[in-house]
Write the structure tokens for this entry.
Amino acid sequence: MNLTELKSAADLVYRFMQPTPQYNWPLLSTALGVETFVKHENHTPTGAFKVRGGSVYLDHLAKRSDRPARLITATRGNHGQSIPFAERSFGIPVTVLVPEGNSSDKNAAMRASGADLEVFGADFDMARLEAERRAHLGLGEIVPSFHDHLILGVGTYAYELFTAVQDLDAVYVPIGMGSGICALMRVRDLLGLPTRIIGVVSTAADAMARAFQSGQPEPTATARTVADGIATRMPNPLALNEIRAGAHHIVTVTDDEIAEAMRCLFRTTHQVAEGAGAAACAALMQERALWQGKKVGIVMTGGNIDPEVFATVLSGSTPRI
């Protein structure tokens, strides 16, 4: 990634959406005791940051001489919205596999964007393996969850944040398959900034945190968390290497901490954050003592949450998955 490529990607992304804001909400900074800037990726047309990467990825596919007849991918929802959303401009049909019990609202949004949606497996990783199997059988070209073109597109939010807010000491960002955190690290390095990038995972889906320490990607048995956007059992090895090289550390947060962060964000900003979208705030709440007198960013990666789940959170409870 270089600056020319990043600006070209931004021009493409802005055909689909406007830049998202990064706000310093006074009530939130007061509640956390830290000068906090929220990058509002919940303000994209799909309600999550993934649309940026999907737009760039589909543009590259559409320009190939061997343009695929069909795409296939797996998701818990936000990646799966981004591909068919962009596909509407490029004309390549998309099959999206989701696990059992996936968010009904996210499923509806994917169908509304034109995806051929199928339910497969008990979790994201089972759906991902099935998508890969079908691709090997020639039933479609796989769209991975981690790829340089996806990272380039997602890097446009990092560029917006770093150019709009000067001298950020740290940025907290949730880790699913890795495109968000890797985009932040690549753009930080491109701009020559000293900002610490801190990843966030769920205690119930902590494979990346374990691998960050050991260097060995090992799957966990389950990944049952209210933060479905980071509910992965197996780290991507390429993402792991990049994260170990460029991230300062990884924080693990519980579902109770995520639910409290969702309530805090709604109370102080009136923004709806899905579980993964509140994970960065939960991590900063946990580590706030480290950042007194500092300037910190948190990425609200998405706001796509089923109403009944959010109602449970606002009632003061933690949804049990």
About this structure: The CA atoms of residues 259 and 317 lie 8 Å apart. The chain has 13 helices and ten strands.
